[in-house]
Amino acid sequence: MRSKELKGVAQNLAAMVCSEARLRADLERLAELPDGEVTLDLIQGAAIHSESGAVSLSVVPSLALWLGNSGARNIGKARVSLRVDTSRPPTHRETLISFSFKGRAVIEAQGRTYVGEATNHVWHNRPAQRRASRRRPSLRGFAATAGPRLKRGVGRRNSKEGHMKGRNVVGAWVAIGVGIGAAMGAATDSMAIWVAVGVGAGVAIGALVSRRGKFSAP
């Protein structure tokens, strides 16, 4: 392969290591690492971060495969460096990261060294599940939402219990009225009339007692 072609190989490697397409699978991993420089050894198939040490990145075998299919022969060294800067512009890192990439490829072949350089900027939206996992429920928020619901629930329960007690009081007074009406009917031979009068009187007295809040049967 001629020198011009080897220079083109180096330039393509520098451009590819910065490209969003090649780095898409590694963006989240890079987001978790501190800013620095990642050195890729395409011959050894390894990646070393300047701050974190050895890292596993999908772009390494991807570029190594491309280099093997490029037609370049007798490659003594093929190293690609990727400088990562996420400081400009500043963003909320939990949701969005601004990557400024600078790539540099160095190839040694046929006794000569070929260098390629490239830059690129990529925006990366963090996964939604990661943002959700970092949210922490607060006791203050729980109290603010659960407190009113608890009060409403107690109020509804008390209202229901009061209503049931009121119905029981009316029923008790109706039973008393029926008993008195039946006795009067038996004594006067006017059973139907007195029972009806007893029912009516029991309903009226029971309703009056319920409204006054006296929920105990006489």
Taking all Cα atoms into account, the compactness measure Rg is 42 Å
Percent helix among the residues?
A: 40-55%
Low confidence ranges = 214-218
Strand order of the largest sheet: 3-2-1-4-5-6
Mean pLDDT: 80
Oligomer: single chain
**How many DSSP H or I helices?**
7
Describe the sheet with the most strands.
6 strands, antiparallel
Protein architecture, described:
The structure is a single chain. This protein is of the alpha+beta class and 218 residues long. Helices cover 52% and strands 23% of the residues. The chain is built from seven helices and six strands; from the N terminus they run αααβββαβββααα. It has helices at 3-18, 20-23, 27-32, 59-68, 128-133, 139-188, 191-211, and strands at residues 36-41, 46-49, 53-54, 75-85, 96-109, 112-125. It has a six-stranded antiparallel β-sheet with strand order 3-2-1-4-5-6. Strand 5 (96-109) and strand 6 (112-125) form a beta hairpin. Helix 6 (139-188) packs antiparallel against helix 7. It is rod-shaped and about 135 Å long. The termini are far apart. Residues 214-218 have low confidence and may be disordered.
How is the topology of this model organized?
Blueprint lengths: L2 H16 L1 H4 L3 H6 L3 E6 L4 E4 L3 E2 L4 H10 L6 E11 L10 E14 L2 E14 L2 H6 L5 H50 L2 H21 L7
Antiparallel strand pairs: 1-2, 1-4, 2-3, 4-5, 5-6
Q: Brief description of this entry?
A:
This protein has 218 residues and is of the alpha+beta class. The chain has 7 helices and 6 strands.
Features:
six-stranded antiparallel sheet, disordered C terminus, 6 strands, 218 residues, 52% helix, 7 helices
